[in-house]
Amino acid sequence: ITLPSISGGTSQTYVLFIATEDRKKISSVSGGSLTWTKSSDQCSHNDTGGSIWTAQGSPASSFQVSINLSQSKQVVAVLTRYTGVGSFSGAAGENTRGPNGNCGSAPQNSAPQLTLTSAVNGSVHVLAVGVPDTTVTSASASYTALGNASLSATRIWAYAKPMATAGADTFGATLSAADNWAVTGLVLEPAVSGPD
Asked: Is it true that the peptide bond before 195 is cis, omega within 30 degrees of 0?
């Protein structure tokens, strides 16, 4: 799929949240003449797979991002842009089997969650909830909704929370019904300049 255009600029960071039907693998992400890297990944039981791809650079103008799958399956995505990001850390995932759960069969539930831990003040926790069939009806109030996208067999909701102080924080959400969810997240650490 090809996403709508996003603005370029100097020293930009792009964070792309993806969910795929049947947890099919992303074969490539391209756009803006940037190098896109899979920075976080989490599967659920044969139903959905979530990943976060990142790129940094200075595209001169607006551009489109294309996502290619290893097989012909549904894919949905939310693309965001940040400035002032130095590096990425703290990649984590969780599914109905628990933190960094494997892709085996597990009981469904309607309470996706994920704990992210930042080591630097002023970081931003970003994450996405991927589900095959249901919808997110509520989420932690301290998190800002970045966007969502839905098709018949895969859906995604993306969120972010600025962290004034380094530390752990747990995101939680409620689904419209029990489902095989996957949450994947990442910490955006601020760029630090100096000493002079």
From this structure: yes
Distance (Å) of CA 136 to CA 33, 84, 161: 34, 30, 17
What is the phi-psi region of residue 117: left when phi exceeds 0, alpha when psi lies from -120 to 50, beta otherwise? beta
Euclidean distance between CA atoms 103 and 119, whole angstroms: 29
Cα distances (angstroms) measured from residue 70 to each of 28, 73, 114: 9, 9, 27
Q: Tell me: the pLDDT tens digits for 138-149? A: 999 999 999 999
Q: How many CA atoms lie within 13 A of 41 on its CB side?
A: 11
Identify the DSSP state of 4: P
The secondary structure of residue 83, as a DSSP letter, is E
Q: Is the pTM of this model over 0.70?
A: yes
Strands 85-95, 48-57: parallel, antiparallel or unpaired by DSSP?
A: unpaired
Ranges of H-type helices in the chain: none
- CA–CA gap between residue 11 and residue 14 (Å, rounded): 10
